[in-house]
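TA notes, week 10

Several of you asked for a full example with nothing omitted. So below is the full record: structure tokens for the whole chain, then the designed sequence directly under it. When grading your own attempts, check the secondary structure regions first.
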């Protein structure tokens, strides 16, 4: 192994002296320092942090990957072309140990840059979250003490809801030391001239944003989907019965396939529809979504219900206020509590935190949704209520907090690191096979095809992709040469989407270890090993040819 480590050290040193790598390293350093503070999102804290996470990790991963790909390609290709590699091979050092040394040198350098940059980005994000939390807790605690001293009983009663909300947020986000501090603090002087009322509502709104950031981004949650029927099977059975009723056995295959899919989409849309209340009954019929095989949930585990509704049709994107009732039911569809009416804005996701007590010793749970559209519209709107529609990809979901932001973030970086290692494999393999210009062109082409692979496959008419549960997909493939071609392309090329899970971190979706293992075995090892073997074979053939020419 001494020879391998010596080659790795020499490769790292020569890479650092490369002008291209030094330029990319400088850009990475500047981007790491500026991105966490310069990237701005929407007007909310959660939206701002989502944008920061996605752009910061994405740009750092892209620049580091390009640096690793360039070094891996140019370093080994130039040594083969310059006959320098033969001096190493004749020591003797086998081709595999030569490649392994090159791989370790470039991988160590690239991963060091990645992890230092990622650690700095995490530190900046975590420090800002803690700064916001500390400021809100301090202001809220002092304002509540001031309200207790200065407000009359009537004023306290009129401001009871925002005061209770602040107390709830303090109980959730203040540390034990901070709570003890405020309990011992007898009186407080107002640092500002404004009244308690004028400062109370803005502080509650700011704390609501922070609470949303905490629940939506700073927790890694596992998504559990309701038990969806097999809509394709139902559509096929209905069409078969229709054909039998008119005395036909079959129709032309392509037309039948299209009809099945069209009917399946219709059945799916109706399965997630909520009918409004009628004039005869002010209480609408609920739509119940059942969940099974739920995990054992600890009492302190944050749990949520998440969904998005459309009024009338999912294609209708016009702004509209509506209202929906949310209730939990047991396995026998009996209610576990009161109906919670919630005002919603159409086309926006809504997340409702569920009391953990309802999950005690339950593997099956149902979510009942009620269409209160007639109650959610503004006073002057006299239009009849509309049917509310939930698309399959929009829920409802039960979200169970599984990991911390720290764990979820570094699992994402681990996957990014695997992708960078794969880029090193691609670069070194092409460098062993071809001259420098051709190797650079082919390695870049491979990655570009991989980046666009998912979008190409999803837009092909031979594939119909439906998001069913989170990131999982069902694909209905057409047979034939075209279908076989795209299937081969998908199984041989590596898509960047498989390694890129930044959206999981920014939206609070847990990155499971099973997913990490799957990516490592299937996308990294299974697809990377043939490239290594091809490069080693080409090195052996190419080395002999170059020696003869020399």
């Amino acid at each position: 192994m001494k020879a391998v480590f010596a080659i790795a050290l020499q490769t790292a040193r020569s890479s650092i002296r490369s002008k291209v790598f030094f330029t990319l390293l400088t850009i990475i350093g500047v981007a790491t320092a500026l991105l966490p503070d310069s990237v701005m999102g929407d007007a909310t804290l959660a939206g701002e942090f989502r944008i920061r996470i996605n752009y910061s990790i994405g740009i750092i991963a892209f620049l580091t990957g390009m640096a690793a790909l360039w070094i891996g390609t140019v370093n080994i290709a130039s040594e083969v072309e310059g006959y320098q590699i033969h001096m190493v091979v004749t020591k003797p050092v086998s081709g595999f140990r030569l490649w392994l040394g090159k791989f370790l040198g470039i991988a160590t350098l690239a991963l060091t840059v990645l992890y230092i940059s990622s650690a700095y980005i995490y530190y900046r994000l975590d420090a800002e979250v803690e700064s916001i939390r500390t400021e809100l807790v301090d202001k809220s605690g002092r304002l509540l003490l001031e309200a207790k001293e200065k407000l009359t009983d009537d004023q306290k009663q009129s401001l009871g809801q925002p005061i209770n909300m602040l107390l709830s947020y303090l109980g959730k986000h203040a540390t034990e030391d901070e709570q003890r501090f405020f309990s011992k603090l007898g009186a407080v002087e107002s640092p500002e001239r404004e009244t308690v009322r004028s400062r109370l509502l803005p502080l509650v709104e700011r704390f609501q944003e922070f609470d949303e950031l905490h629940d939506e981004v700073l927790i890694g949650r596992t998504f559990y989907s309701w038990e969806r029927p097999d809509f394709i099977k139902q559509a096929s059975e209905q069409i078969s019965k229709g054909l039998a009723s008119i005395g036909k056995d079959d129709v032309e295959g392509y037309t039948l396939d299209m009809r099945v899919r069209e009917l399946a989409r219709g059945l799916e849309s109706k399965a997630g529809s909520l009918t409004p209340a009628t004039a005869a009954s002010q209480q609408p019929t609920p739509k119940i979504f059942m969940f099974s095989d739920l995990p054992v949930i600890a009492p302190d585990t944050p749990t949520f219900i998440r969904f998005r509704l459309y009024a009338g049709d999912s294609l209708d994107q016009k702004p509209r206020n509506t209202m929906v009732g949310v209730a939990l039911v047991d396995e026998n569809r009996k209610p576990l509590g009161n109906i919670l009416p919630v005002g919603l804005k159409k086309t926006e996701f809504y997340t409702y935190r569920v009391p953990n007590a309802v999950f005690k010793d339950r593997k099956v749970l149902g979510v009942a949704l009620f269409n209160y559209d007639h109650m959610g519209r503004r006073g002057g709107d006299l239009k009849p209520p509309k049917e509310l529609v939930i698309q399959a990809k929009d829920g409802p979901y039960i979200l169970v907090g599984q990991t911390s932001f720290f764990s979820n973030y570094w699992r994402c970086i681990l996957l990014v690191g695997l992708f960078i290692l794969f880029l090193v494999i691609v670069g070194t393999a092409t460098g062993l096979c071809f001259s420098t210009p051709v190797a650079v062109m082919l390695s870049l082409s491979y990655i570009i095809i991989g980046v666009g692979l998912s979008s190409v496959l999803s837009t092909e008419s031979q594939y119909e992709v439906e998001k069913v549960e989170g990131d999982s997909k069902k694909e209905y493939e057409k047979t034939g040469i075209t279908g076989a071609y795209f299937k081969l392309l998908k199984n041989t090329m590596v898509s960047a989407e498989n390694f890129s899970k930044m959206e999981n971190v920014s939206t609070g979706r847990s990155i499971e270890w099973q997913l990490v293992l799957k990516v490592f075995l299937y996308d990294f090892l299974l697809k990377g090993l043939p490239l290594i073997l091809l490069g080693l074979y080409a090195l052996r053939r190419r080395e002999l040819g170059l020696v003869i020419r020399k």
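The mean pLDDT is 78. Use that as a sanity check on your answer.
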